Amino acid sequence: MQDPRDEEFLRLRDKFGHPASPHFRRALLSGIVDEQLPGVLQRYFGQQIGFYFAFMQHLFGYGVALSVLLAPLLAIYSVDWAQHLVQTLQQAEKVEVLLGDLVSGLASEVTSSEASKSRWPLWSLLVGLTTTVWGQCVIESWKRKERRLAKEWGSSRADAGRTPRPSFRGRLALSRVDGRLTQVHFSKQLYQARVVAANLAFMLLWALTFAGIGMLFASNLRVQVAQEDYASLGALFSVVSIVLYNLFKIVAHLLTQAENHMEEESWDASLLVKKWVLTVVVQCWPIMHLLFIRPLLFPCAYGDPEVRQRLGVEKCAFWDYDCCNVELKSGEQVILSFAQVRSEAVVRHTRQFIAGWLVSKIFAHNLLKWIVPRLCGFLCTRGLYPLLAVDFAQDLLNGFTSESDSGRRRAQQRRLFCCRRRRDKSFRRSTTDLTADIGPSALPEEVVSACELQMDKQDPWDVLDTANDLSVHFLVTSLTTVIYPFAPLLFLAQLLVEFQMDLYQVFDRRQPKPRAAQGLPGAWLAIFQSYVYVGAISNLAIVTWRTSLVSDLFNDHGAGIHFAFFSTAMLVLVLVVGLVQLIVPDIPSDVKEHLQRRQEVEAFFIAQSRNSQVHDSANTARRTQTRPLQTNPDVADALANTASASEVLVSNLWRHAQQVR
């Protein structure tokens, strides 16, 4: 625990841990751009937390760069959206015609109907390539920044090593390394079988859950494709996905605990694999469902009634692809086709869904992440009674309105005294123990009060679990930027809210145990790298099968040309990503020089130490030789006999070795 009398720590807590403080309000937007803040945090909470907040600042900077690169597309999309909005309001007779003509004229100059058909596929391809290269640049530049921060913070030699798990169950055996008595697995094959079975159970549980959800909503979804409010569905999915993720996270912890890992590193790796699968399935499933699965299952369920009647597909069944595969031609020229109508409707529906999903995710994700643990702790302390909601709201209000921890402590004491059992057994006992064992002279009153306040707070903030949220934001941005160009802006807003909420939770909960680290865990970088490839596959699939780019370039609507374009473009994109990895070195030149200089200095001091040891040994031997040797005759005879016996034994062993050869 930090010393409550440390003035710098008190200023830091007042700036990021007290919402009622004016410093807190002034730091809402300045913390994420303060490059000195991670260094201050790592001094008080450990280098692992410092690297986490430095990575959030790194993501924010590259999010701004992505938004600047996509600014022309944002402008085109904004004008197009304004045109659509004005047309909708004109139909409702809520705006004047003059405003509609002004915006419509501007929109027609930028995105007319014919221009949008020709520009949108090319824009989507450029956005997909830019987003993929951007994601790889984020990873490569972070590796360099991570090494530089490790040099500045003096953590380049921090090594976690192998940490045994206290809950491991095994048999006692002698270690082959040092001969000590250690615990090992009963059977290595049984351990591997348990790991495989637990992961298969996790996958099966996910499959059953999604199958149940699909069967529950299939009948409703296939009938109301054109009448659904996709923005509301996206907002609802953001809440449902958070609930599902937290439920399955508990299941993942239980299954990983059942695997009986011997070391903390293997336990973290197994849990990380489950979280990776969980994240990919939850975040990719709605987009893939709206873009590819649903049009494949119900190809004839799209289009407005007027368009369907004009093409003569209003009587076709939703799953009958041959019935709705029609085109309206004027001679040789295709005026309108239902495939084009379906593709435009799919992109439009997905865009609306993503807008509602990302906007609600900014608030729902952070609010639930903060309020649910607090509510669970309140329930465990108070129990269930009629005025629980009123007391919980009052507790939240006290936490937000108190400008210092003294008000919070008074609120916590009132909460403790309302429970007689906890007051008698916990609070009084801890006070008497402190007084009897340590005494008031050993611990000042300020330190005792700070310790009592820490005991009443929630468990420490978990940086590794929160890092998974960053990977989710990164994946969602990589997946949705092609469809929804405002995704980078929402990504920046998400990072702003997430940064402030995480800083608040660091001070609002118990102070975490400081941990040394060389950077973020290597497994997380591998996860971010996998998300780059997942986003590349998704973006190219959208460009290939949900735009007219391939058909316009090659004048061919066949499936073979689409697969050929997808595979070739994916190969080119992989080569570009590999080229970025090759060009950008992982270690900066100044850090490399620092490491080499340190190795040379260490080698010099080691050589000096060895030379001094050799010099001391030589001096000792010289002093020994100059002394007169006085030996007892009996001892001399015994030494001679022992030497002759050793020579005989060595000669016998040599003769036996020659015979064996």
Description:
This protein is an all-alpha fold and 661 residues long. Among the domains are: 195-383, no CATH class; 385-456, no CATH class; 591-626 and 633-660, no CATH class. Helices cover 75% and strands 3% of the residues. The protein has helices spanning 7-16, 22-26, 37-45, 47-69, 71-91, 97-110, 113-153, 188-221, 230-258, 264-297, 305-311, 321-324, 338-382, 388-401, 405-417, 420-438, 445-455, 463-480, 487-508, 522-545, 549-554, 559-583, 589-626, 633-660; strands at 171-174, 181-184, 327-330, 333-337. The chain has a two-stranded antiparallel ribbon. A two-stranded antiparallel sheet has the order 3-4. Residues 92-118 and 406-439 have low confidence and may be disordered. It comes from Polarella glacialis. GO terms for molecular function: chloride channel activity. This is Anoctamin transmembrane domain-containing protein.
